[in-house]
Amino acid sequence: MEQDQKSRCVWADSAPDFPHYHDKEWGLPVDDDQRLFEKLCLETFQSGLSWRTILSKRDSFRLAFQHFDFHKVAEFDDVKVAELLANKDIIRNKRKILAVINNAQRAQELVAEEGSLAAFLWRYEPANQDVPPASQTTCAESIALSKALKKRGWTFVGPTTLYAFMQSMGLINDHEEQCFMRQKIHQARKEFKRPT
């Protein structure tokens, strides 16, 4: 098939569901608070696991976590936590589940103070966009964002987790040089109106 002949990032051909994710989502700039929050949560669940595992369960995560509407997740109680721990279709890690609920509450606070998650997160867009693709796992901005979020009470938001978040949400173009998406992401980032 024509799609399979495209030159992609090496990782994109390593699993059947990766090409679609790579071609349609990864690296495209996002300014929607709910999608940004979802990605932060999924990165939390990925900690210590493979992205393939998380992607295969993403629809189940969306159902279990009210499509990552952080206003709804912030209201989750002990009964809901018990329900999530019994849900075999998601990652049943109590620390991560509690982190997502905590971070939903912190997201509400941040939006009340800053206007939106997007406006806050995009302030940490890496200044140096000329770094060779796939050459680093953190940057000065992911370290700074990690510190800023932890100071606000967020958990499971280390610099490496946040760099992966930046890659996937378009704050940096980390598609490999030979990848057909690199130029498309470059153009999308050029046309993207940064939230304020």
TrEMBL record:
<dbReference type="InterPro" id="IPR005019">
    <property type="entry name" value="Adenine_glyco"/>
</dbReference>
<protein>
    <submittedName>
        <fullName>DNA-3-methyladenine glycosylase I</fullName>
    </submittedName>
</protein>
<dbReference type="Pfam" id="PF03352">
    <property type="entry name" value="Adenine_glyco"/>
</dbReference>
<dbReference type="InterPro" id="IPR052891">
    <property type="entry name" value="DNA-3mA_glycosylase"/>
</dbReference>
<dbReference type="InterPro" id="IPR011257">
    <property type="entry name" value="DNA_glycosylase"/>
</dbReference>
